[in-house]
Design brief:
The protein has about 120 residues and is of the alpha+beta class. It has 2 helices and 10 strands, in the order βββαββββαβββ. It has 2 domains: about 45 residues; about 60 residues, CPE0013-like fold (Roll). The protein is elongated, with a radius of gyration of 18 Å.
């Protein structure tokens, strides 16, 4: 049996949750103040993911950079791969929020999208 403490960030309370798990599943949690902690803690233990946010250069735009993010969280271990793939990307203006800047980043099946407009 494995044990550890994880800060649950699903709600503003940010509980320090004590968790117990085996190789296949979350067995118990303690000190969670809401029912959302169970799913968050299980995901954080067995499949941690992060939304990657950054900026990329813009060609022929009113702004030199556009903010971007992954459309959904990527596996935590691939964050640096995603950043490396974005290192050479230059977006072409005009750009609208939600435009796909890089499709299927790092073979994850997840797109990187614009989070701002650039004329």
């Amino acid at each position: 049996m494995n044990t550890g403490e994880i800060v649950c960030v699903v709600c503003p309370t940010s509980c320090l949750v004590h968790a117990e798990w085996d190789d296949e599943e979350l067995v118990s949690i303690d000190r969670a103040r809401c029912k959302l902690a169970w799913d968050y803690v299980a995901a954080e233990i067995f499949d941690p993911r992060r939304t990657v946010t950054t900026t990329v250069p813009v060609d022929a735009g009113q702004s030199p950079l556009v903010s971007v993010k992954t459309a959904s969280p990527v596996p935590k271990g691939m964050v640096f791969d995603v950043m490396n793939d974005l290192a050479g990307v230059v977006a072409k203006a005009p750009i609208t929020v939600g435009d796909v800047i890089l499709k299927d980043v790092s073979g994850t099946g997840i797109d990187v999208v614009a989070t701002m407009n650039v004329a």
